[in-house]
Amino acid sequence: MKAKKIGEQVDIKSxxxxxxxxxxxxxxxxxECIPGFQQKVFHIEQPSEFTxxxxxxxxxxxxxxGNDKLNFEVSNPDFKVEPNGSLVALKNITExxxxxxxxxxxxxxEDMAEVLIxxxxxxxxxxxxxxxxxDGSLGILRQKRAIVATPILIPENQRPPxxxxxxxxxxxxxxxxxxxxLSGKGVDQEPKGAFKINENTGEISxxxxxxxxxxxxxxxxxxxxxxSGKSIEGPVLLDIIVIDQNDNRPIFRxxxxxxxxMEGSPTGSTVMRMMAFDADDPATDNxxxxxxxxxxxxxxxxxxxxxIDPEKGDIVTVVSPALLDRExxxxxxxxxxxxxxxxxxxDVGLIGTATATIVIDDKNDHPxxxxxxxxxxxxxxxxxxVMVNLSVEDRDDPATGAWRAVYTVINGNPGQSFxxxxxxxxxxxxxxxxxxxxxxxxxxxxxxxxVENEDPLVPDIAYGRSSTATVQITVLDVNEGPVFxxxxxxxxxxxNIPIGSVxxxxxxxxxxxxxxxxxxxxxxxxxxxxxxxxxxxxxxFTTAFLDRESPYVHNNVYTAxxxxxxxxxxxxxxxxxxxxxxxxxNDNAPAIYPTLAKVCDDAKDLRVVVLGASDxxxxxxTDPFKFELSKQSGPDxxxxxxxxxxxHAQVSLLQNLxxxxxxxxILVTDSGKPPLxxxxxxxVQVCSxxxxxxxxxxxxxxxxxxxxxxxFSLFSLFCKFS
Length: 722
Known about the structure:
Elements: E1 9-12, E2 22-25, E3 36-37, E4 41-45, E5 55-58, E6 61-62, E7 71-74, E8 79-81, E9 86-89, E10 99-105, E11 110-118, H1 127-130, E12 142-144, E13 147-149, E14 152-155, E15 164-171, E16 179-184, E17 195-197, E18 203-206, E19 217-225, E20 231-243, E21 257-262, E22 270-273, E23 290-297, E24 306-308, E25 314-317, E26 333-341, E27 351-361, E28 369-370, E29 374-380, E30 385-390, E31 392-393, E32 405-411, E33 418-422, E34 429-433, E35 444-453, E36 468-476, E37 483-484, E38 489-494, E39 502-505, E40 508-509, E41 519-525, E42 531-533, E43 539-542, E44 557-566, E45 573-583, E46 591-593, E47 596-600, E48 607-614, E49 626-629, E50 639-643, E51 648-653, E52 660-669, E53 677-690, E54 693-695, H2 706-721
Parallel strand pairs: 4-11, 14-20, 21-27, 29-36, 38-45, 47-53
Antiparallel strand pairs: 1-2, 3-6, 5-9, 7-10, 8-9, 10-11, 12-13, 13-15, 15-18, 16-19, 17-18, 19-20, 22-25, 23-26, 24-25, 26-27, 28-31, 30-34, 32-35, 33-34, 35-36, 37-40, 39-43, 41-44, 42-43, 44-45, 46-48, 48-51, 49-52, 50-51, 52-53, 53-54
């Protein structure tokens, strides 16, 4: 064989004229035997069809020991390798996937080769693209000086015994005494010890089973050292590629899977998508998934209500819209057991399953219907509240607005005496009286009620006669209490009118005009006890003097309550309010304040006290007030009183007095007609004052003129009889 440069592509005429040209790479020539496939990567073009038993290409495997017990396995079960190394199809196949992997094993060695299929719908790159390794790291020999390191392909999940020879590095110079040294991730870096090299022969061994899903490729460094361990060649890169095995089942990772579809949806409506994950190499059939429905529960009305797209995982409806009727279903919720199988769904593929729940959603295709055309209710006059519940039937989903009812009174309610509301639990219409009914006005009422849904009906459905109903209401007569007219009753009277004076004659009527009852009267609340009422004719008269200044009078108004009682069995009672506005008369004399004053015996200011006057009556029976002293004569004429304004006066001394207590008679008169005068003694204490301290404790005996007392008494008698 003529030698080619390392890495140079060689064109080889295919021995099979019906198939495209096979491209292969020549790694080296005249190298010593390395166990395994002599060519590990092939590229073929996608034919229109792989023909049964027609050779596709030829594989050469050599374990360097005679190939004892050599056996081939192909990743696609539709292909096999003949004992002579020919790859053939077991049947006519138009699509074989993106790659084929051939695993060869003998008593001495095993290896993996890859056939990449180029062309057709899917165009695939080389093995370096499938395994995502760097450019220039596959398909050619790496050569730096004398080191030849070809990429090594190792199947994952190999079984013992270990270590297992997987390849060899060549020292083309063969320097005497030199040794090989291997380093990198998988040797002296984690995961440490996965690979080792025979320092003398350059044989690479794997020490344990590899997992492609953990680490798909390893990049190691090979060096040649002298006896002392000093590097004399390298390092060069050695790529180790882990070939995928179908060792991972598809997994549904995004559950729970719940889909919804509206009832009556057209055939082919998409419900949901099921997506499984396979950790195997996505560039191989090991991760090429196909989906299938294993089981449907319930299986009514059809055991095949749904279909799943085997490639995309989309679940669609396959029954007619008529069968997708929620109201006729045994259960509007379906559970599907979904299977995902790798190896494109072939029998050898691994399987993962998940449950998809599909809910048939309701649409408003059934209007609510009253259970009866006519309902009856009985209610007492004068009361309010719910009097009857109207029931309806609706076949739609109770959890939706397609079931919830809305009621409306459309006739017979001009006075807005009735209202209807929906019971959220039962969906019944609760018809209530909101304004008391009067038997004497109308003993019967007829209402027309309609019911609709919160959600609108679908376009081809309409509300019918059953969505309206009549309610016949009978009003029961009750014995109603008499009513006062007007209420409250008001009247104005002067206070202090004679006892027995008529205040007012009240009038009450009985609403039960058809019962012809008599009415009696009585006092209910009379806080001051001033009034009485004639039980027959309702005349109210006084039993005591009315006093405007009484604590029972507020803002000049006295309030009392009276009862009107009919002759029913049992009797009914009505309450009326009487408000008497009391006019003021001058029946209260004014009073002065204060009634005690103190002054120093040596005071320079002889003003003793400012007096004020007050009157319980109203203007004009109050101020201006007139202030006076009883007449003074002889030596006792020592006081004077001076008016300040309409309500106040100043009491002063005309001279200093000895320390003693003095009683001064003060006359104060109001402006009423006739006026009233009040006689009050003002007590004045003349005290000893030293160093700003007033001492009144040692006052002498009372000093008051007998003549002053006599004059004061005569003046009071005169005022009383004048």
